[in-house]
Amino acid sequence: MKALTPFLLSLLASTADAHYRFSKLIVNGVEEAKEWGYVRQTKNYQTNAGVTDVNSADIRCFQNRPGTSTASVQAGTKLGFVAMSAVTHFGPVSFYMAKVPEGRDINTWDGAGNVWFKVGEISAPSSGVLGSGVETWPAYNKKTVEFTIPQNVPNGKYLVRVESIALHQAQSAGGAQVYLSCAQVEVSGGGNGNPSPLVSFPGAYNRNDAGLLWSYYPVRTSYKAPGPAVWRG
């Protein structure tokens, strides 16, 4: 394997501590005033560290405590997350939803099992020379990331999971860092869609998945985020 150049080594060093967390929701264009309102507080609320073990239960919501409040949202509208202070590592951002079963308390339901479906993705172009900057990764250095709630999603209460996979140290299995959190929402104005495919966390990813690995050399010309296809309703 070719040795890393001094530039790439300096890049790795400069980005090693640039961690972040998703701690606020943007509903109808309005950002929450305080952290950890609709978003369940995560274990990295003080350190901003990511999750590296995709087989850990932390890969689900990384939560430090149960939820406290639920946002009311309309199907077909945009929902956003605030990255504190920005998405400072390159890689894809994905969004998942999981419907809370009838009779369960959204504040304490843990989202275990095959209940998650992907509803949005901000990834790299499908072809061409891929780098580690904003020209390749549209979410890179963004302070907010957002997706559109599928119009046909059934009404009900949901956990909404945001996930940013940082690839700057992912030259070998286990090197990817996942920054994630889960928000609580109640959807109205939806339809009778059948979200699929359903996956579990942990379970959806394998540490050797191509989407969790990155090569500076040879230069990458294609990339696909791990996990299922996006359900668009």
UniProtKB/TrEMBL annotation:
Provide the primary localization. Answer: secreted
Subcellular location(s): the record lists: Secreted
Q: Where is the Auxiliary Activity family 9 catalytic domain?
A: 19-218
Please write the reaction equations for the catalytic activity of this protein: [(1->4)-beta-D-glucosyl]n+m + reduced acceptor + O2 = 4-dehydro-beta-D-glucosyl-[(1->4)-beta-D-glucosyl]n-1 + [(1->4)-beta-D-glucosyl]m + acceptor + H2O
Q: What class of enzyme is it?
A: oxidoreductase
Cellular component per GO? Answer: extracellular region
Per its UniProt record, what PANTHER family does this chain match?
A: ENDO-BETA-1,4-GLUCANASE D, PUTATIVE (AFU_ORTHOLOGUE AFUA_1G12560)-RELATED
The entry's protein name is lytic cellulose monooxygenase (C4-dehydrogenating)
Q: Per the UniProt entry, what species is this protein from, by scientific name?
A: Cladorrhinum samala
